[in-house]
Amino acid sequence: MGCPVVSQLEVVSLGKTADGIEAFMDRVAYESDGVMLVGRVKWHTDFAGKIESGLYKMMAIGLGKFAGAQRYHAYAYRGLGLEYVIRSVGRQVLGSGKILGGLAILEDACHNTAKLDAVPVEAMEQREEENLALVKTWMASVPFDLDILIMDEIGKNISGAGMDTKVANRGVNGEYTPWPNTPRFQRIFVRNLSEHTYNSAVGLGMADVVTDRLVNRINWEPTWINSLTANTPAAIRTPIHFPTDRECIERVAPTVGRLDLAEVTYGWIRNTMELGRLAVSENMRAQVEKNPILEIEAEIECEFDGQGNLISPFIPIEEAAGVH
């Protein structure tokens, strides 16, 4: 469209909410004739509410830039809660008169665009709730509990938290199984970082075991800036790590409470955003066959390369699009 991309951190104060939260807006946006918001409406990785990630969050955490994000997360951590802060700051931003409206993008379980909603300012809060409720009904998940969930990759391009906490059933503050009615995983093994996360390892701390190659790739500066801004230092704690995939699995398998390791149940996904294909161990066959939404595509051997690392059955979506 020929629009310039302007990235900078200077903000303008929009005054304080009734709770004393100072609201900010990106200076370039504030000095424009008006702001049209365009963003995806989805569940948030840190909390559950009627408004989570979407146009309101963009008005707060997005337009508020680093200064706003740091302050808003601090108020949320002090007891107000992130949904309350997002609503309050969003209303303050709307009160500035700079927002013209929004375009809400809703995605289905395969992350295809399922709905576009042009939202006027006066209906933004109500439509944000309605759109989030609809998106949650489309949310994909791993269809059963597992002892060990293997992920090929985590990354900021996959989820703001590196891995989708509501798929992995982990909390950014180190909680195990914080989300009700969500499959439980005793252990999570993460093999690597996504090529598109630029070595930011946010979400690292939610894994139980990772590889040395993942740890050696981490660029710690963007990782800790992101984590500390969001008040989630536990999300970047370094788990135990070993040189190869084989050793990671052999070390963690005895910790799931099975006396017979042949009974350990495994699931394997590329990442928490791509759940259309899932590999599971043979001892999960009965559960797969009785689930009407699942279909066995193929039987594969779990193979390791010459370095002791798994050979993944998954390829990126962009590559799979050209495969028939």
Walk me through this protein's architecture:
With 324 residues, the protein is α/β, with parallel strands linked by helices. It has 2 domains: 11-137, LarA, N-terminal domain (Rossmann fold, 3-Layer(aba) Sandwich), CATH 3.40.50; 146-320, no CATH class. Helices cover 28% and strands 20% of the residues. The chain contains 11 helices and 11 strands. The chain has helices at residues 27-30, 55-62, 65-80, 82-94, 124-137, 165-168, 212-217, 220-229, 245-252, 285-289, 317-320, and strands at 11-16, 22-26, 35-40, 99-107, 113-120, 146-154, 185-193, 209-211, 240-242, 266-269, 279-280. The strands form 3 sheets. A 6-stranded mixed beta sheet has the order 9-8-7-6-10-11. It is elongated and about 65 Å long.
